[in-house]
Specification:
The protein has 362 residues and is of the alpha/beta class. The chain contains 12 helices and 15 strands. A hairpin with a 2-residue loop joins strand 10 and strand 11. The model has no long low-confidence stretch (mean pLDDT 97). Bound molecules: pyridoxal-5'-phosphate. The site of pyridoxal-5'-phosphate (PLP) has 14 residues, from helix 3 and helix 4.
């Protein structure tokens, strides 16, 4: 079997036709298709207000600005995350405060956060890594009791469920990304979902230079608008989300059965739907790089996950030297395996076979 990509979306004639329809309608920038999409996401997920933006990073920045977070504020964030989570805090002039991740579930927990609270703490920005939900009840209770803002980075988690309720439906500000490797894609795209009308109204203004009407900026904002071309692709993808979730869960089951001797990212019981944006396997640090190299050499695009923030070249200079044992433990063992709507069961079986072959050699 030849070259297996790390992720491949499923885009077909439906998306092609939808793009051409928008093209022919002559309204290509943010317009009716984006409005239609915002309504559809709200209906599908169950959150009241949806604000589309041009990517997940801008959804994060727009959320932070909408909540009035800025210079002088501290925002608590896990060290193991994609840089976008922390960069969005830096972009609004607030201070990211790093906390550790659970080495088994990869997500952060309140027990790590409690130790980092100060008078300046304004918000908590946890991440649903690979699409596995944080313990939402615990985070909501804790932030409510401590008068803190909760913004959930669910960039990887659309379609995911916590205790049989969709991520994004709980009321606090949550963001999703629609980048290429995500469960549904618009090539680029992001959205904010919230039950708070004030936050939604601010986010809508901030998305477009704070303009209340043409060339009248009421508040500070930037250009986070998405085009109707991207929104129409997401609309088509949204129609297929159930099918994609079933497919991804089927692929994950093959990995779990074929590689039953290996350790995976642990799925807590409160996760009632794992969207499997990513599928991670843990291999002892002594063997991990050799196995990854072997797979890449045989045309299988496996990837080591992002280094935790405290190990990033740029970010490491911003933080005092601290230990994040859980984040480092994940980083030293993880390999993200191929996963995507466009991958077949045969491809996943083949990847599993090659992993078993590799592990025997090293
Ligand atoms: C955890 C996390 N946060 C934020 C983002 C940013 O999303 P985008 O790439 O759409 O800007 C990503 C995307 O890859 C992500 O994985």
């Amino acid at each position: 079997m030849k070259n297996i990509p790390w992720s491949i979306p499923s885009l077909d004639n439906k998306e092609r036709k939808a793009i051409l329809n928008v093209f022919d309608s002559k309204w290509l920038s943010q317009g009716p298709k984006t409005k239609e999409l915002e309504k559809k996401i709200s209906k599908e997920i169950g959150g009241k207000y949806v604000i589309m933006t041009n990517n997940g990073t801008s959804s994060l920045i727009c959320s932070l600005l909408s909540h009035g977070i800025g210079p002088g504020d501290e925002v608590i964030v896990p060290s193991l995350t994609f840089v976008a989570t922390v960069n969005s805090i830096l972009a609004v002039g607030a201070k990211p405060i790093l906390v550790d991740n659970n080495p088994n579930t990869f997500n952060t927990e309140i027990k790590f956060i409690k130790k980092k609270l100060t008078k300046k703490t304004k918000a908590i920005l946890p991440v649903d890594i690979s699409g596995i939900s944080i313990d939402i009840d615990e985070f909501r209770d804790f932030t409510l009791k401590n008068n803190l803002i909760l913004i959930e980075d669910a960039a990887e988690a659309i379609g995911g469920e916590y205790k049989n309720r969709k991520i994004g439906s709980f009321g606090h500000t949550t963001i999703f990304s629609f980048h290429m490797a995500k469960v549904i894609t618009g090539i680029e795209g992001g959205c904010i979902i919230t039950n708070n009308k004030k936050i939604s109204d601010s986010a809508k203004l901030i998305r477009s230079h704070g303009e209340v009407d043409k060339y009248n900026s009421k508040i500070f904002g930037l250009n986070f608008r998405i085009s109707d071309i991207h929104s129409t692709i997401i609309l088509e993808q949204l129609k297929k989300i159930k099918k994609f979730l079933i497919h991804r869960n089927r692929l994950a089951k093959i990995y779990q059965q074929e590689l039953s001797d290996f350790n995976f990212q642990e799925i807590p019981d409160f996760v009632t739907m794992h969207p499997y944006m990513l599928f991670a396997i843990l291999i002892s640090p002594k063997k991990r790089d050799k196995v990854n190299y072997f797979l890449n050499k045989h045309g299988i695009d496996t990837r080591i996950c992002w280094p935790p923030i405290h190990r990033q070249t740029f970010h490491s200079k911003l933080f005092k030297k601290e230990k994040f044992i859980g984040a480092d433990s994940v980083y030293s063992q993880i390999i993200n395996l191929p996963m995507g709507n466009g991958l077949s069961e045969e491809q996943i079986t083949y990847v599993s076979k090659m992993i078993k072959k590799a592990i025997k050699q090293f």
